[in-house]
């Protein structure tokens, strides 16, 4: 049986950290908490679970903090979580099983990450992350914000899911760190460009978002999943500026990177629905319905676009065209996804 070190970085997480640690404390063999400047009871609460609570001076660099936490690990594998993550009961059992049977030759175990939910608790956004890593491989984090691990070796997908219980956001924090990188003259990688553009979009700075999404795409060095997502976000930025011509170009550009995805097809459906061209809207929503949903790809999946959204939009489009029979058919289909 392998042993596991849990490594976490935290700040002002008194409302979340207990829930996270309770969900894994009987599975991991070591809990390492790195605090980056809490002013609440986070450290006190963490101390109820482990005596390995460390202070780390915040330097606007998430990778530095995470690498420090990894440096304190002593077990075979490292599991990393954020304070607002949790393992549900079924996934606790799966992680226990993986711990018992994992082949020690495995370097990385991927786990699904359910990141966002609708008002009824249905998953609307998920993706795979590298969650369990062999300590002897000395994997490390890169980039000050939206940090990542460049992993290699023997990688396996698991059926374990980490559930994100998002409690609070800081809309400017990430953007401030990226802007500081630019001010210091640091050269942005395509990945940096993607996240910088996304942060600009999140605060409605559309010109900056458009500039950096295009820079990222024009670099021709971005990951296919990031390029496709960039096209979706770029179209959103153009729509906010009422630039429909470039909005359409951005969506069509996504086909350079992979076969059509339901998320893109639905955006194209919306494009034509907005101008009451319901026949062309139906073409794209119908295509979204016919695509096979990817279940094991590591990129993000917006689940509603692979069933519910095209169904309800087809219902509306057929209704507008006076085809009540088809409208009822797709209304019933939508109800299968959201009873």
From TrEMBL:
PROSITE patterns: TPR. Gene3D superfamilies: Spore Coat Polysaccharide Biosynthesis Protein SpsA, Chain A, Tetratricopeptide repeat domain. TPR repeats lie at residues 262-295. Signal peptide: none annotated. GO terms for molecular function: transferase activity. InterPro entries: Glyco_trans_2-like, Nucleotide-diphossugar_trans, TPR-like_helical_dom_sf, TPR_rpt. It holds the Pfam family Glycos_transf_2. Residues 5-149 form the Glycosyltransferase 2-like domain. Keywords: TPR repeat, Transferase. This is Glycosyl transferase.
């Amino acid at each position: 049986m392998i042993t596991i070190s849990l490594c976490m970085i935290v700040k002002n997480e008194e409302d979340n950290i207990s829930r996270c640690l309770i969900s894994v404390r009987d599975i991991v063999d070591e809990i390492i908490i790195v605090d980056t400047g809490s002013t609440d009871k986070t450290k006190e609460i963490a101390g109820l679970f482990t005596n390995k609570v460390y202070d780390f001076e915040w330097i606007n660099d998430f990778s530095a903090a995470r690498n420090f936490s990894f440096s304190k690990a002593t077990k075979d594998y490292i599991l990393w979580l954020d304070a607002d993550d949790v393992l549900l009961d079924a996934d606790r059992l799966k992680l226990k099983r993986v711990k018992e049977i994992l082949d020690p030759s495995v370097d990385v175990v991927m786990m699904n990450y359910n990141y966002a939910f609708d008002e009824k608790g249905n998953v609307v956004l998920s993706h795979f992350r590298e969650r369990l890593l062999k300590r002897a491989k000395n994997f490390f984090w890169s980039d000050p914000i939206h940090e990542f691990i460049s992993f290699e070796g023997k990688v396996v997908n698991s059926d374990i899911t980490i559930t994100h219980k998002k409690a609070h956001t800081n809309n400017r924090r990430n953007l401030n760190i990226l802007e500081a990188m630019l001010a210091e003259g640091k050269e942005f990688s395509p990945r940096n460009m993607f996240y910088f553009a996304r942060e600009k979009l999140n605060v409605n700075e559309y010109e900056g978002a458009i500039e950096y999404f295009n820079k990222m795409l024009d670099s021709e060095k971005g990951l296919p999943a990031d390029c496709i997502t960039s096209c979706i976000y770029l179209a959103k930025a153009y729509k906010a500026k009422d630039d429909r011509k470039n909005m359409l170009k951005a969506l069509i550009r996504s086909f350079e990177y992979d076969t059509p995805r339901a998320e893109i097809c639905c955006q194209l459906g919306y494009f034509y629905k907005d101008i009451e061209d319901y026949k062309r809207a139906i073409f794209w929503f119908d295509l979204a319905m016919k695509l096979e949903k990817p279940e094991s790809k590591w990129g993000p999946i917006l689940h509603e676009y692979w069933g519910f959204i095209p169904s309800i939009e087809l219902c509306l489009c057929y209704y507008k065209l006076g085809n009540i029979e088809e409208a009822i058919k797709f209304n019933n289909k939508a109800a299968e996804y959201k009873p």
